[in-house]
């Protein structure tokens, strides 16, 4: 830490930046992979230790201050904090530290640290100015809707509403017996409006922000693909529905049926998306991490399956063509998929011994070899995640909290109200900055009056961090009292006190001195004892020299 001089706040940033460079070297220089991986791990551990030893009043600044570095071509990089860089680099060791979670991530999640846009349209993390002040009006502000905790609650409510609307909209084809019923009903209108708002939100966060920021396919995750597929199916269903309304006769019914079929395909996807909606809870978040890692590891299986599938399909098609009677390739694909799903149709190849033998090989390759490879990959991925589940979840939670506030939105309109933002946004180029801010404040205050009022009441009167009675009501009366002095050195009363009896004759402060120091590793303790021994030997030498 002394080597950082007057730039202690920049030291963790530099270490995580060095870690990123070492990881790049490790991935692109396989011969030195272990060496560079060790260097990267050392940088991450040092960054965590620097934060751990830093003064408490400087930790927030060290974690949230944004820095730039000069790139190889001489250009200056984008501003980023050590917390954001650690999230982008997936530094689980650093992000799972107490300082990162309690001092910064939880403050961002609860809204004690908020984003502020400076004159250069850059984002800075600053303490919430009303934090600690009492009163309802000091917390009634549209900006509080951007707090990740409240965003998450609002998102859960909206998504549950979306599921209700979807469940009602897919019942619409039951009304097709009515020949006069061709137009959109109220549930369909609500469904497609909500779908449009979610689509705009995904485009803004994924394409406009993440892809432009990282310029890499790694910015796209599994749930982004699920969202893209869901939005695409809903868009196709809407187009087919409009085409059906515009047409007449048989075409109307056919388009309406095709629209319903596309809409039905969305059901598994939107129910599956409940997992990332509720991932703020530890159990669901850990489950999602396990699923994502298992799907990531299954890439080897699907790659081998694709290669074998193409090979066997070509071989079976060639054997089928040899007898002069070509079957449809789609039928061959269907037979291969049935075998993969443990329902082989051997009768289909009964007339061709060579084809039957090749089909046997396909079943052996998939059911015996590939599926066992998939099971082993899933087991390995699950063990890797479970072994370090706590750190993985804390890193994921940090990513979730920061991702909600780092998107370049100065005025947050959560879906489905982001459609209104599309109408308000052009005013930014027409009126001045002050007027534009007032317009947004008034619109948001009206639209979100109930949520903002609820947030203000909670922060002013019900927040357990400020109100002891709420904390006592939500928890047991004895929880969190172990650190009090009267519990560390308890005294007896009554007859036992009169007889001079004591619970413990050794004070708590003296008792813990013989306990091992769990804040440092065993190697660190050995080095400390060696240093102490050297100091004692030096003192003895000085005493001997003085007496001589």
TrEMBL record:
<feature type="domain" description="YVC1 N-terminal linker helical">
    <location>
        <begin position="3"/>
        <end position="140"/>
    </location>
</feature>
<dbReference type="Pfam" id="PF23317">
    <property type="entry name" value="YVC1_C"/>
</dbReference>
<dbReference type="InterPro" id="IPR056336">
    <property type="entry name" value="YVC1_C"/>
</dbReference>
<keyword id="KW-0472">Membrane</keyword>
<keyword id="KW-1133">Transmembrane helix</keyword>
<keyword id="KW-0812">Transmembrane</keyword>
<dbReference type="Pfam" id="PF23190">
    <property type="entry name" value="LHD_TRPY1"/>
</dbReference>
<dbReference type="InterPro" id="IPR052971">
    <property type="entry name" value="TRP_calcium_channel"/>
</dbReference>
<feature type="transmembrane region" description="Helical">
    <location>
        <begin position="220"/>
        <end position="246"/>
    </location>
</feature>
<feature type="domain" description="Calcium channel YVC1-like C-terminal transmembrane">
    <location>
        <begin position="219"/>
        <end position="460"/>
    </location>
</feature>
<feature type="transmembrane region" description="Helical">
    <location>
        <begin position="152"/>
        <end position="169"/>
    </location>
</feature>
<feature type="transmembrane region" description="Helical">
    <location>
        <begin position="359"/>
        <end position="379"/>
    </location>
</feature>
<dbReference type="InterPro" id="IPR056337">
    <property type="entry name" value="LHD_YVC1"/>
</dbReference>
<feature type="transmembrane region" description="Helical">
    <location>
        <begin position="299"/>
        <end position="319"/>
    </location>
</feature>
<protein>
    <recommendedName>
        <fullName>Ion transport domain-containing protein</fullName>
    </recommendedName>
</protein>
